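Reopening this one. Same input as before:
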Amino acid sequence: CLSDWSSDVCSSDLATTLLSKSYCDRLGIPYLEHCPHSAWDGAGNEVVLYPTLIDRVSIEGVTLRTCTANVAAFSPKFSLAGIISPLDTFRGMPSELDLVARVLRLFPNQTTAEWVNASSEPLWHADLYWDDGNPYVRATVNGRFHGYFLFDSGAVANIVTVPFAQSAGIEFDLKDEIHGPALMGSAMHFRSAGGTLAVGGSAPVATEFFVKQIRATTDDLAPLACSGYIGLPWMEGRRILFPPGGSQVFFTEPHRGGNRGE
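Same output, byte for byte:
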């Protein structure tokens, strides 16, 4: 039973919930250590994943049973039990990332329409496009450059790829490297000039962009060309709802208070 993890984070881009190998070993949570498979994180680090089945998860007074997850060795720089994937673990109910109050809410007895109608503030929505288990949204940079962006609440910056930055005229210096820790190793970005970012018809927001080299899609039949990441700076101050089914995401404009829509 995983109950009200105080050390966990929630990341909207993960295909499945991810547990720390050391956490599982310490608590005796079993996983298929003889059935590993490889994947790559957003920083380009290879990650060895071990599948597991969680019997019960209790969060915010809501209990979910029989949830799939992967186990991986986290960098020692991160003291995390795991990272929750709301679009997978909570896919049968509406779940909200409230980045005004900085809480995660689950609504097992409420429909998406009821959540929308309970909100006193304007709401926007965007379609989710899936590629290799990861959710993308269409976004606009600097008012006229469009692309598919990974919707990633775990990303510490709004990010554009090197090709997208070049096509959109976003200036950056290959010598201005920024190195930082990543969950499985390290990450490198290039600092760039600022710009604006808009999703789903909402108002564009001023932001700094990090530029990075991103590994090409693994889908050779119908590749989705990733233009970057919608990260935490764009999400700050918003309430974000993931309805069941994983086809859309709803969100408010950024603010510092207001009705929580409960």
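So the earlier flakiness isn't reproducible anymore. For the record, The CA atoms of residues 40 and 46 lie 4 Å apart.
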